[in-house]
Specification:
CATH class of the largest domain in chain A: Alpha Beta
Radius of gyration of chain A: 23 Å
Largest sheet of chain B: none
CATH superfamily of chain B: MetI-like
Shape of chain B: elongated
Distance between the termini of chain A: 52 Å
Shape of chain A: globular
Largest sheet of chain A: 6 strands, mixed
Helix content of chain B: over 70%
Number of domains of chain B: 1
Number of helices of chain A: 12
Number of strands of chain B: 0
Strand content of chain A: 25-35%
CATH architecture of the largest domain in chain A: 3-Layer(aba) Sandwich
Oligomer: heterodimer
Order of helices and strands of chain A: EEEHEEHEHHHEHEHEEHHEHEEHEH
CATH topology of the largest domain in chain A: Rossmann fold
Largest interface: A-B, 31 and 25 residues
Number of helices of chain B: 12
Strand order of the largest sheet of chain A: 6-7-8-3-9-10
CATH topology of chain B: MetI-like fold
């Protein structure tokens, strides 16, 4: 279990001090795949570096299995870092060493026997699906393959926790998906707790079971992924989930009544929802935008609808749509605000 | 200099004899003083260059600011003294170490003193090229500062170090030629004492040509080796 208690971090710059993290309190249970999401500059990279003390917090404590990381000696800390390993956006492999040697490095640093280290490294190359790349150099590999090698390197010391700092941000969507699948596998098979730092909601959606949203160094929302997705409370969360609403929906015509239909695991496409509403209620909604993803046979995401007619029609549409299980309906914030003004 | 009298058939014959009789030993002297001085300068300069990077405020093992300041001033000071003056200035030191200030062996002392600050700066610049994220990654694995130097910084900068040491060797060879003016041996002595002072210009030119050739060979080899060692280049 990882506990962050009242964690704060200030950076001293020439323009004075900057508060990167403010009073962070989080608990990450063993076996979690925990997402920490935020825009650039929200402090997520600083936060993850405070966990393994690459950055020293200015205030507060980090407890890993009850042990205070901040008060450890250098030697204890180095030993601990073999159990809390990390992968990065830029992969950060040694470019002048073969993949095998890269993976063996953490064991060499720990003074392990060379033969055993090599055996273990080959095992991990197998696990990440690159058994034939032992003697290749990183420059000969694609980004996705390099990240696999980095993952193998991070797992070679048999850690309890894997920290992923924007580990898929430099990869294309397909490779991202494959790497996330690998991370999920590792979590399930090896029981390693994973902390995923990202700015992409899709990454959280795909692998995490819990998520914390970070904005300006503060946790603005925290909870189970499904729960946060279906009912985002903080503005930062909404901006991350519906990035296009951040620009005020200006691509759409002015006026009209807009609702956002959120699918939180609704059984997908068994019923033609919008068409049925047209038949049952005579409301001819137009779809202004949609972003849905199905996981198994369930739909996650949202659909933005324009509801013509009177406010009564709007109310009718909302109550009709809300009847479907696992669907929530919200009147669009901008529209609601406008109506109050008028 | 009179070109008409410098390259008469007799003079050219003389230069040819010199090439056969004197040059092989002079080349040998130039090479071994260059290489030994480079070796000693690397032995002192490499750790110093490492400290310049690791010891700074944001380095992996910060050292007291006073010590870093002292090292930087010392290096800059030695780098700013022209070699030919440095050589004369440290004659007492050379005597204390070698027993004499004359000859090829003695010239290795001032060559080393002149070259190690240069090497330290070159090593510093090579190590600064190492991707800082890789160093952070090593820290995240629990590597100690010494391990980071040995397992990450030095191996990752090998191609750059080879390029820079090649540069140092060619520069030091230039110094050995200068040392010919004040007691050193080798091609420099041949060019200055024999070619210049005794008006044997053909010998002077010949010595320069040989120096240029050796420099070319060393530089080409260094460039080739650095490229060969660099695993960042694909399709090898």
């Amino acid at each position: 279990m990882i506990e962050l208690k009242n964690l704060s971090k200030q950076f001293e710059t020439t323009d004075g001090s900057v508060e990167a993290l403010r009073h962070i309190n989080l608990t990450i249970q063993d076996g979690d795949v925990y997402g920490i999401i935020g825009m650039s500059g929200a402090g997520k990279s600083t936060l993850v570096r405070c966990i393994n003390m690459l950055e020293r917090p200015t205030e507060g404590t980090v407890l890993v299995n009850g042990r205070d990381m901040g008060s450890m000696s250098q030697k204890e800390l180095r030993a601990m870092r073999r159990k809390i390993t990390m992968i990065f956006q830029g992969f950060n492999l040694l470019m002048q060493r073969t993949c095998l040697n890269n993976i063996m490095l953490p064991l060499k640093l720990g003074g392990a026997d060379k033969k055993q280290a090599e055996e273990k490294a080959r095992e991990l190359l197998e696990l990440v699906g690159l058994p034939d790349k032992a003697n290749s150099y990183p420059a000969q590999l694609s980004g996705g393959q390099q990240q696999r090698v980095a993952i193998a390197r991070a797992l070679v010391t048999e850690p309890d926790v894997l920290l992923c700092d924007e580990a898929t941000s430099a990869l294309d969507p397909k490779t991202t998906h494959a790497i996330l699948e690998l991370i999920r596998d590792i979590n399930k098979k090896l029981g390693i707790t994973v902390i995923v730092i990202t700015h992409q909601m899709s990454v959280v959606q795909e692998v995490c079971n819990r998520v914390a949203i970070l904005e300006n160094g503060e946790v603005v929302e925290e909870g189970g992924v499904a729960e946060v997705f279906s009912n985002p409370r903080a503005n930062a969360t909404r901006n991350l989930i519906y990035p296009e609403s951040a620009d005020g929906g200006s691509v759409f015509p002015e006026g009209g009544q807009r609702v956002r239909v959120i699918f939180n695991g609704a059984v997908a496409s068994r019923e033609p929802l919008i068409a049925k509403m047209a038949v049952d209620c005579s409301i001819l909604a137009s779809i202004l935008g949609a972003s849905t993803r199905s996981v198994g046979d369930r739909a996650y995401g949202y659909m933005l609808l324009d509801i013509p007619g009177s406010p009564e029609d709007l109310a009718k549409a909302i109550s009709y749509l809300s009847q479907t299980p696992d669907i929530t309906v919200q009147v669009e914030a901008e529209y609601a605000a406008k109506e109050v003004d008028e | 200099m009179n070109f008409a009298t410098a390259f008469t058939p007799e003079r050219l014959q003389e230069a040819w004899d010199c090439l056969i009789n004197e040059f092989p030993f002079a080349i040998w002297e130039t090479l071994y003083s260059t290489l030994l001085a480079t070796l000693f300068a690397v032995i002192i300069g490499l750790p110093l260059g490492v400290l310049l990077v690791t010891g700074e405020k944001k380095g992996i093992r910060p050292l007291p600011a006073g010590l870093m300041g002292f090292l930087n001033v010392l290096i800059n000071l030695l780098r700013s003294i022209p070699f030919i003056i440095l050589m004369v200035m440290i004659i007492p030191l050379t005597r204390a170490i070698v027993g004499t200030s004359l000859g090829t062996v003695a010239s290795i002392v001032p060559l080393t003193i002149a070259a190690f600050p240069f090497i330290a700066r070159l090593v510093e610049s090579s190590l600064r090229e190492v991707n800082p994220n890789i160093i952070e990654t090593a820290q995240s694995m629990g590597a100690s500062p010494l391990q980071i130097v040995m397992h990450v910084m030095l191996p990752e900068s090998v191609p750059s170090l080879v390029t820079n040491i090649t540069l140092a060797i060619t520069t030091i060879m230039g110094y050995t030629a200068m040392s010919g003016a004040v007691g050193g041996g080798g091609l420099g002595k041949l060019a200055l004492a024999y070619g210049y002072q005794r008006y044997r210009y053909a010998v002077l030119y010949l010595a320069v040509i040989v120096l240029v050739l050796i420099t070319q060979i060393i530089q080409s080899f260094g460039t080739w080796l650095a490229a060969r060692l660099d695993k960042r280049l694909k399709n090898k």
